[in-house]
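Section: Multi-chain targets

For targets with more than one molecule, the full set of components is provided together so that the structure can be written out for the assembly as a whole rather than chain by chain. Components appear in the order listed by the source. The example entry contains two components.
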Amino acid sequence: MNAGTGRQPSAGGPRGTGATGAVHESGRSARRFWSARRIPSTIVALLSVAAIGLLLYDVVSVQADRSAMRWRRRLAEELATRPLDDIWMIVGAAVAMALGLWLFLLAVTPGLRRLLPMRQPTGIHRTGEVRAGLDRCAAALLLRDRAMRVSGVQSVQVDVGRRKVNVHAHAHFRELNEVRADLDATLGEAVTTLGLARQPTLVVLVRRPKKR
Amino acid sequence: MLKAVNRVLLGLIGLGLFALGGGVLLGGLDLPRRWDFDVPGWWPFRGPDDVVLGAEGRTRWQEEAWWWPTVIAALAVLLALLLWWLLAQLRRHRLGEVLIGSEDDTAARLNGRALEGAIEEEAQALDGVSRAYVRLTGRRAAAAARVRLQLKPHAEPAQTLGQLSRETLAHARDSAGLDRLPSEVRLREVRHRARRVA
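Its structure, encoded as tokens over all components, is:
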């Protein structure tokens, strides 16, 4: 197996980082970004406003001696006549349960998985002043560009996960082991320049390109 | 603020839907009898032959004089709250002006757009940044900045962030005379093709 795994030492930031780098490493700066959940909230609010508005309109119009709208009579009738083991009731209940669970999960999970929290920059006069996150695609692009500079690498694919960076490279010349060692060193250094709060594990895989 | 409201409301609505669906499912599949447990006395759904909203439940209070006004009032309040919630999503909060506290009590005002533009310009001059977008949020007396940076290829994010916070943001904070300027920075990069370096 051509996999070389190496956890990067957690301290040791980019140039200019003093001994305080390790202090900011833990605690506050590593917190995830929490999404405001605007889109689901907008959808739920829109649907609820429409439903409640319609119901209110109908209740008021019935009070003003007009007859109820057809959907409301139909709905009352269905709710009053369909037994609970009717297939539609079961399906409806299952859908409501799944939807409810999904909304609840949206409410309690942070979201924004694309954004990797970055280490607190040093040299600012108060901690917590700057919170930064690096886009995962940007991290992958930066690492890919670095990997392309290693001689022997013909093409490379970098997947940046939240804890792990997977690198698949094709080398068309040089010994595979040498290329892998070079990639390990280059990318190991490049990962620290990303300034992430949590150093991801680097997994490098080098292969020969397929013969054409 | 909006974050907390959204999450609490989504969670409550989710739990409500989950409980309602679960209750109907429990009755519809006759689980209390099959799995041999008891539901409390007030439980509305009893057995597979029950209905969600029977005629008795629907008309129980209809004769009471207070019923319809109460329903209308409750629906109206609910509708108002939901409308507020909906409008809060659509409004983007942006600070028009920043209050600068000076020694004497006269507070000076600074145009928010001007400060945003100044930070953007200075950030774009940084090494490794191709575009910067800055938006001021928070309150007039306690401004905060949201910064979006578009990185150039071969940028070093840690270094760029360090420069941004030590120079650009610190400079903006000091020159505007602000006590502090909490900032949230997000860094991205434009997608581009891989190039072989000879």
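The two ends of chain B are 52 Å apart (CA to CA).
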